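Structure tokens please, single chain.
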Amino acid sequence: MSEGKTASVGEQAENTQSASQEEVCETENSAVKPEANEGSTKQLSADMTYTYEEVHSRPFITPDSDIPENLLHLSHSFGYDSGRRGNLQLLDDTTLMFIAGNLLVLLDVSTKEQKYLRSCSGGGIGSIAAHPSKEYFAVAEKGNHPNIIVYEYPSLQPYRILRGGTERAYSFVDFNQDGNLLASVGGDPDYMLTLWDWRKEEVTLSCKAISQEVYRVSFSPYNSGLLTSSGSHHIKFWKMASTFTGLKLQGLMGHFGKTAATDIEGYVELPDGKVVSGSDWGNLLLWDGNAIKVEICRKEGRNCHAGKVQPFSLEDGQLMTIGSDGVVRVWDFEGIDSADSSDHSSKFEMEPMNEMVVGHNVCLSSVVKSSTPDSFIWFAQDSNGAIWKLDLSFTYTTPDPKCLFSFQAGPIQGLDVSRKSHLMATTTLDRSIKVFDFLAKKELTTSRFNQGGTALSWAPTLVNQSGGLLVTGFEDGVVRLLELFNPQRLHLASGRSVKGDAELRLKQAFKPHNAPVTAVAYERNGEILATGSSDSTVFFFTVGEKYKPIGFVHVPGPVQTLEWSPHSHSENRLLILCQSGHVVEVQSPDPEAQKPTKTFQLPELPSKVFRFRSIKSRIKREEEIARRQEVKEKKRKEREKRLKESKQPESELEEEEEELPPIYIPDPPSPLCCGFYSLPGQFWISMGGFDAGFLYHCKFSEDQDQEPDQRQDEPFDCRPIHNADKDPICSITFSSDRQLLLCGMHSGFIRIYLLQPGDHTLTSMHAYWTLSSHDNQYGHLRHICCSHDDRFVLTAGDDGNIFSFSLLPPEELQKELQRKRAKVPSPRRGLENELLAQDIEDPAAYSIETAKQKLEKDRLRREAELKIAAKRKKLAELQKEFKQLLNNNQSQPEHVRLKPGGLQLDRRFTEQAERVKAQRVREVRKQMSWEEERCSRALSKLQDWFRNSLESNMVTVVAICSEHRVSTYRLPALTKTSAQHQSRASPPEEEQTTVQGRRKSKAEPAKSGSILEEEAILHAPVSRPAGVKLADRQVERLRKAAEKAEQARAKIEKRRQEWAKLYAEEPDENCEDPQDVHAIKKAKETIGDLKLKSDKDFTVPKHLRMNAERKRAELMGLEDNIRQKQTEMNRRIVALRDSKVGLLSRLRAQAEQVKKVQQRLPAHLHRPPPTLPYILPEETPEKRLQYSHATLERYRVLRDQRLQTMEQDDATSLLDQLEKVEEKEKNGEERTPSLSASSVTGEEGEAAGDEGAELSELEEELQREEEIRLLHEQDSLLEEMESSVCQFDAELQLLRHQKLRLDMHLKMADLRQLTLYQELLLVKEFEEREDSLQEKLNTRIKEENNITSMLEEFNEQLALKRADIARLREREKALFSAFQASLGLENKFEEFLTKVFKKKIKRVKKKEPAEEEEEEESDEDSDEDSDEDSDDDDDDSSSEEEGAVDSSVCPPGCEPELFENTLQLRERRLDLEELVVEEKKSAEALRRECDTLVKKEKSIKSSRKAAEEDLELVYREKQQKMNELDVVVPLRLNQIEFLTNGSLPSDLSPALVLDRTELNRLQERIQQLQVEKSQQKDLNCAIRQQHVRLLHDRKDMNTKIQELEEHCNQVMMMKYGQLVNLEVLQTLSGSRILEELKQEKLLKEAAYAKEMKEWDVKVEEAREALMEVTRCDTERLRSMTSLFNQQNELENKLNTRQKKMGGQFQDYRRRVLQEDIQWLRDLVKTQCQQAEAFSREIFLLSHQGGHVLPPGPDPLPSIDPFPIPTDRTTTGAV
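Here you go.
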């Protein structure tokens, strides 16, 4: 690496980001950038690769030095830059890749092994990306014109190098879907977007992306010609378009519109071209085109995530998002894609489908998916320092998130190594402390606390021999001592197993500071611990088993570093380096010295201060002078040489010299970075900012009298640092032999200098070795140290990375160390028995000094209480002594006892003087009575005119120490008014509600007597002839059945009433919800094209219509408000005046106490008391009218003097003169006591001084103690007086400001009052016309309400009539059902009785005169009903044609009771038909009345509308008149937003004045309407879904009802054999006929049973006979079988002899056997059929409830005798 390269890296450490912004990158700005080399024209072989050793960056070494190139060897990386965007990529299922400073780390997940690739530029790595095939990965670097290196995987060889894409750094790279293109975007200053054909190392397209930071760029996965980029407050959509000049990149900037601009970290492209992006506040933004279509949030306006949100994947119709809240959520893609909003871009609410909470302290920033196909495994980057493995399958078997690796997040705040082992400890603000074994390359243990760590130090072996003690400082000021030990050895004795190789245990915690602890350091002997903090204090502690505080010192600035003097120095001192540029050296405190009791501060500790003054500009100036002098000398020699050669004189031209660089002193001063001791009293420091680039050698001045902030100390020597003008040294450390100086640079570089032994002045600091390790922009290397054996170098930076380097190669290091892991200290003896130390968990806990101060205050308070108690005790003793003296006086003899009366004068003198005085007073009053009355009358009149006419006088309160004053308002007294404002008539809406309230729905008309009659006749049983007598039990059963039927009938009737009530409550199909009607009405009034009041078509809303009454009330309300504000302000000013009066009284009392105290003090200890203020006359104006006798006397004297001098002064001047005289006398009285008191004090002080010379030593000591107490009391009183005065002045000034603000508001209220008064006059002009039109409108509305009320009543009655008619129809059906039930089954007279029941009969009834007029209408109704009964008429006519049958005579064979019941039912039917006709008549009459009212309602509505229009014209005319009134509105310039071309126009008449509160309300209303619209959409969607669900439920219920009906019908058919009416069945009482039939059936069953028994006997006899015959037949069969067997034997014998004759006998035998077998089969089949028939009959009889009788014996089939063939017998015989 060259020097130029190092310089470029140093330049990159400066972060210069531009804040400029550009709108859109147009087509003409796009241009293809040519390659800097000729690589674009050459063809690259697919197998060509680069050599990694030739490409990667190397350390820089000073030329001509002996430093080896491999001075340091990278051992391991312990950190992870979790805050970097997209710092996690996946190469295969076991290899993760991330950036660590200037390294690329390839981490094996299973083995945790790491591989490293260095950056090629040495300036850092900007971004990484993996190829879709995972065969390549791209590394985009930082530096001066950085490159993009494409590596092969797994060979890790550089495959392609892309050059010339940006100037300084790449911020993001990404491959397209098929991997043939690569997109890159640069950072500041060019922000160049480049598309690469990376296999050819060629630039395809290139243009500037935008003028601000770009976070991400990617190709669309659905269209390779589309790209999207996002970043700081922007998102941009790109398109590769073909133009006439070639392929171009066209960009379209996304417009946020009304949505607040936000940083966009992530986005996802949708298939239809839309883009879903995240936001800073946690909601998703759906982009359509280049505008936001909708903002997506959760229900009730909740954010999708808490904090930043990033969508990262779209798979299987699900959109996945991550957030800084540590949650992964899954959203429905269709819901997002179809999301829509109103014109005002309102939010769209939806809920996630699934979610996974990774952790509570997790901040997810990027995720990568596993390369395995169809895998749900993802790896997530946690910004809080972890890498997670997530299974996003969201199933019941999904495992919990797994944390694969845990690192420290954020900058490393503290790092130190053990003094005895290869152990390292670090701490960060993430509240963790980690201990690493950098020899074994692993983490040993982690401890977490409530606050973040800020400093850390490993205790030296002098303090802890085992090397296991750590001192850590935290951001809340707490210092904790932690013990590190091996827990395996601790639990070895107890037998318990423990996990881990090391453990941290809290030993002690204390809080010395109130701000973050920035440094901790042990004294060289290990006896004292020093802690420094950003609160500019350094605290000292004694080191021991328990650390005890010694004290603290204040320093001029926040502490940066602490360093104790080494053993080579004679004195033990502490060097304190402050961030402000101050360096303080303090002597080591003596732990044995006497500690102060009140505070821990060490004010007398010797110290020296050095304040750095910049000398860099002077050094540069001197270098420039030397350079110019050298140039001059060189030119002079060249000129002399030319003169010698030419031997001709040439004129010397005087060149103008440039001005030398000025001397520059930075303000504010440069920060101090680090420093260290050189020699006693001397030290080296490194400065940042302007003064970087040097190491300054400084020493403390001998003159230490100046204040630290006023000092200006300059270094006496310096050492330049090569290429470090903008790269200061942040940390410095030495090797143990001080031959290596290790520097941590601001740019993340490690720089090592070789020094000579004992070189404290750094004269040998020339050659150096440097290597870039941490990030060059923000990886400031603040911690660097060597291991205890100088074999390792450890570094930690602000980028969160921790590196370990070895000074030896790994092979040699392993051979030399002979072990692979560090040794962990053993636990202390007895550690397992110790209790855990008490920790300080509350960040607001008291520090050591604060607790000490609080204890001291508590002690002083207790001492004061004891003194008060002693004083009270002394007073009580004095009182007791006084009472004792009184008692002693009383106990004395009476002639000696002292009496009070003995000191008084003779009472007669007093009485005489009183009588004379009273007589003279009466005489004077008698003489002056007339004058007294005249003056009293005049005084009362003056008081009524001047004083009583005002509610209060004007009071002016003046400040004590300033000229500020505040006065009350002069308010006139309120007058009692007798006029009472009567409110106008109630609006028509109230009348309407009243009418509606009065309206009552009429009850149902009473049912006619015939309808309410019992229906017993419907079910009246038909009597039968009493042929069978019922038993008592049957009679009782009939009675109970009748009761049960009656109960069932009542229950059915009750259920009918409930159903009727339920149906009555059912709303009509056209009925609307009153709430919806009100909402629609309100919407019509408030939504729409709202006109301005100045518009001609403006319609004044009802709630804004103004009349004289309301306007007068508004005016009076404004006046009351003004008066209330003024009264309240007057009250506060008077209260302030009263407080001043009380303050003056307290001040006088305190002044008296001061005088008393000063009387007891010497004169030289007196402090002058403050001047006592006094009340001015304008502060108490009420006292001006109060007078006393002395006032009147002075007035008389002044009046006499004026009369004597004949001056022409008026009374006013005389009164003023009187006030001045009184004021002078009052001031003189107030000043006189103070002077006399001071003289007395002086005299007493002198006397006390004279007497003091004669006091003894004890008395002198008591006197000194008393003087101290009196001085404290004097100071306390004076300070209290001053603070009281200052507090009063502050309250007065605040009240004065508030009154000025109120004056402004009152002036605006006065203008408003004037406008209201003008409007009131205008309203009065229209009042008469408006009242007449309003009265007319109210009349029309009242009539309309009455008609509407009547119409609703008639409609209700008509509905009731129709319901009655429907009920009568139902009764007719029930009557016919009862008739059918009375007929029974298979009645042969059913047809005849049905004709009788349906026959029409003209009934004659007596008509009233009123009914005769309605005969014609009834005839018409009967004609209308003739169609309904046409079927009955047809039946009657057909019956007449068939034959003349008399329906009034019971036919023979028919039961008379049944016939009579039929006639009664016919009469009931005729009654019901008549009732139906009557109900129809009344319903028709109601319908005609309703039609009449409807016509009348239409006419009333038209007249009401006309009245409303007339009234509206009046309102509009009145509004136009009001618009013509002038209204004064004072405005500030910042309130005027009506500008023309950026300037204020001269004419503001077109402008519109709006109240900002009202404007804000309208804007809030817009948002509310958007939310309401979204809610209504959701409600509409939910209602639709509910409607669909209810339709489905209704369909399912109907289906279920049908199924139940079918099942019920089937059960009826099975049980009853027909469909029956269950209600009729339930209401049927016990039938006597049925009981008689049952009784008759029982008798017949008994007779039949007897007969069956007789037949059973006969059957049994026949069976016995059959058995006997069967036995006989069996015997015969057996004999036959034996004979057959014999026959077979004989046949066999014959067959053997005569084969020819055997064929005939065999055929005959076979035929006979077959016939026998067929006969037996028929017999078995017949018996099976009989058995099945018997089983069915038994089953039916058992289910019908009848008795099962045994089946009668079926006749057995006849058994034919076996035919005995004669031929066979004959043959046998032969």
